[in-house]
Amino acid sequence: MSMSLIPEVKSIDFDDLEKGYLRAYPQNYFSPYGSTEEMRTTLLEVNKQKTSCKLKEDPSLEFLLEAHLNQKTQVWEIFQYNLRTRRQKNLHPIAYLKPQCKGTWALWSSSCEHCDNNYHFNCTDSATQQEMREQLMLIESNVQDLSDSIMYTLNIIVPSVDEENKKKTWCPRKYPHANDYNSDNFLIKDFEKRKSPRAAVEEDSLSLTTVSPQWDEGLQSFCIDFGGRIQRNSKRNFQIQRSDDAQSNVLCQFGKKDQGLYILDYKSPLSLIQALGVALVSLQWE
Fold first, then answer.
1. Do the beta carbons of residue 253 and residue 275 sit within 8 Å?
2. What pLDDT does 187 receive?
3. Cβ atoms 168, 201 nearer than 8 A
């Protein structure tokens, strides 16, 4: 693998914390939420074309993140700045949501926790992917037929977390026998069938899926309980749980609150960036 020096990360300026442009240090966006019990509540404001959105704290409405769809490449670019207050041309995204193939997306960080802490070289060998280094999530979207409608479902793979709630790092340098793990052609189905010597990759991963709706006799429809957090019906209303969780412990929920406004709640093992990545995939649903 060829190596190149880590480029200057122009999107990160810690002095901006004192100026009020940044809400938190960049690494805080990538760390799993501190609680495994209570969800962090946020709101996502989405434009009419569903090509731009802003994530804010709920209920304080403090700015958290901003995302824009590059309509030429169909890649979502995620920024830690409110671009209305920071109009510099050299601001780089801190993360990207990139389509892999039909119905599958990968969430990338423009930095790599493993390499940036241990090496002086970055971990990508592609000039076209030098901004996409550490993979944070893989998302597969499908359509399920219900008796009276259709439902979009998600299968998700994220890095697992250790006992100290620290996520594992998906970096090609850590998996020399699994370089295709970070390739554009990677599919979740391939991952699930994968055997040794790539078994170590599976040990560092956690599988998530959408919560199945339950039939409500009174409403004569399939329903999901959002605990009063949503006020509108939408094909984008969903909850996420571990694939092996028979108790349906909700780790993330996304739903329509009003026109152009969605709730996005999450807890560990998900980070703020990962929760936003899941929400952005739903904005692609027709």
1. no
2. 55
3. no
